[in-house]
Amino acid sequence: MEPRRPKFVGKKTKWEKRRIVRRFARAAKGKKPLVELLTIASPEERAAALEREKMVFYDGPQRIELPLVSKRGEESLQGIYKVGRDLVVFRHPLTRSASNWMKALKYNIGFGEEYVKDFSFFSTVPDLAHMEVNPLWRGRGLGLKGASKAERHVRATKSGRYISNPGPNLFEIFRKLGFRESPFRMYSGKIGKLGKFNEQDNLLKYHVIEAIDPKTGKARLFRFPIKEASSN
């Protein structure tokens, strides 16, 4: 039975319509739905949430309020995504260390964020080759989101440019991000990318959250300073 063609009832922007069309087209081809962004709150609601050290998102009519810093004060909020029926929260450690990992946690309405077996981890150290994605979430684009955020962070902290031996599965992700094999003999076996430096991509200093702008319906990055950054 073929999926029913969606009706644009109550949709306000052409970008929302395009997202629905893409979702329908993938379903018609038997493909898994891609990771989707949530809509961030209005500027007024964002300002009020920041005063409480929280941020508010919407999945349709469902309102979701997340703390900017985890209960233990160890990890900062770096995004929330929808993967199929799951909500996935990205958090990054607030302390600089030799092994810096960004975690992807399942979020359940009413229960909050959960650590469960085989969740995703994205390395944010110069060697980005060590990355794992939950098997249930593979093929959705979640790995691409995590890798993109991690490699921008690496440039922002001036930690390095090349990654070593990403393996055949990970190379496809980094290829989509613009990485290419190094032409230099001294970097043989490594891939790299020349990208723009943006200080506000530093995950130790900023919450870098990709979401739908409620004013335009378009996806964009929202950046909020991390209050604890002064101690790092």
Describe the structure.
The chain is an alpha+beta fold. It folds into 2 domains: 1-31; 32-231, no CATH class. 21% of the residues lie in helices and 31% in strands. The strands form 4 sheets. Strands 1, 5, 6, 7, 8, 9 and 10 form a 7-stranded antiparallel sheet that branches. A 3-stranded antiparallel sheet has the order 2-3-4. Strands 11-13-12 form a 3-stranded antiparallel sheet, with no helix packed on it. The mean pLDDT is 83.
Biggest sheet architecture: 7 strands, antiparallel
Number of helices: 4
Beta-strand share of residues: 25-35%
3D shape: globular
Q: How many discrete domains?
A: 2
Q: What's the β-strand tally?
A: 15
Average pLDDT: 83
Summarize the structure.
Helix content is 21%, strand content 31%. The chain has 232 residues and is α+β, with helices and mostly antiparallel strands.
Keywords:
232 residues, alpha+beta, 2 domains, seven-stranded antiparallel beta sheet, three-stranded antiparallel beta sheet
List the helices and strands and how they pair.
Layout: H1 14-28, E1 36-37, E2 39-40, H2 43-51, E3 54-59, E4 62-67, E5 75-83, E6 86-93, E7 101-108, E8 112-114, E9 121-123, E10 131-132, H3 142-156, E11 162-164, H4 167-176, E12 180-181, E13 190-192, E14 206-212, E15 219-225
Antiparallel strand pairs: 1-5, 2-3, 3-4, 5-6, 6-7, 7-8, 7-9, 9-10, 11-13, 12-13, 14-15
